[in-house]
Amino acid sequence: MQRYYSDKIHIVLYDKRTGRIWQSSFIGSIDEAPLCCTDDQDYLICGGSFLDHERYYVVNGALTLRPQNPSRLEGAMLVDVPANAVISIDEVRYKCVEGGKVTLEFGLPKTYAIRVVAWPFLDAEFDFDYSP
After folding, report:
1. Going by fewer Cβ within 10 Å, which terminus of the chain is more open, N or C?
2. Which residues pair with residue 103 across a beta bridge?
3. Is 114 left (phi over 0), alpha (psi -120 to 50) or beta?
4. Burial class of residue 81, CB neighbours in 10 A (0-12, 13-18, 19+)
5. pTM over 0.70
6. pLDDT tens digits, one per residue of 72-98
7. How many CA atoms lie within 13 A of 80 on its CB side?
8. By C-alpha distance, which of 50, 47, 55, 59 is closest to 14?
9. Strands across the sheet with 77-81, in order?
10. DSSP category for residue 36
11. What is the pLDDT of residue 7?
12. Could you tell me if 44 and 14 are in contact, meaning their C-beta atoms sit under 8 angstroms apart?
């Protein structure tokens, strides 16, 4: 027997392994929630009408703010880079397996857009003005 509510129910679909939110939806009945998931997904019923998927993930069944990325730009060096991060420089991606300190080298003078991506941290973004 399905239960119906006057208001739509807000659910979040997320990856069971990482907690990464894939999408949020509104459903008419709580019985529909399991039908929205694939084998590697789970769902969470939450309040509110909007959820910033980039800022939250699911930990132990609860919506949680993603932690700040510890990466910092110091001169031509990235420091405190998490292990297994992906560093993008002007959208060219480089895998950083060990993390820690990363020395940046550039060929042409210009402003470079740098992004450090390391789940579950928020992305860190920097602009680096290179002029030899």
Report:
1. N
2. 77
3. beta
4. buried
5. yes
6. 999 999 999 999 999 999 999 999 999
7. 9
8. 59
9. 72-74, 77-81, 100-103
10. G
11. 66
12. yes
Q: Which two tokens stand for residue 52?
A: 């910033």
Q: Grade residue 126 by pLDDT with cuts at 50, 70 and 90.
A: very high
Instruction: In the chain, count H helices and then E strands.
Output: 0, 12
In this predicted structure, the answer to whether residue 64 has a pLDDT above a threshold of 60 is yes
d(CA 61, CA 45) in angstroms, rounded, equals: 10
Pull the structure tokens for residue 47.
Answer: 């309040």
State how far the alpha carbon of 59 is from the alpha carbons of 30, 43, 64, 111, in Å: 21, 12, 6, 37
In sequence order, what are the residues at sequence separation of 6 or more whose Cβ sits closer than 8 angstroms to the Cβ of residue 33?
9, 11, 27, 43, 45
Q: Which residue has the tokens 């003005």?
A: 129
Mean pLDDT of 118-128: 98
Integer Cα distance of 32 and 85 in angstroms: 37
Return the structure tokens found at 76: 């031509």
Q: Please count the other Cβ atoms lying within 10 Å of the Cβ belonging to residue 14.
A: 25
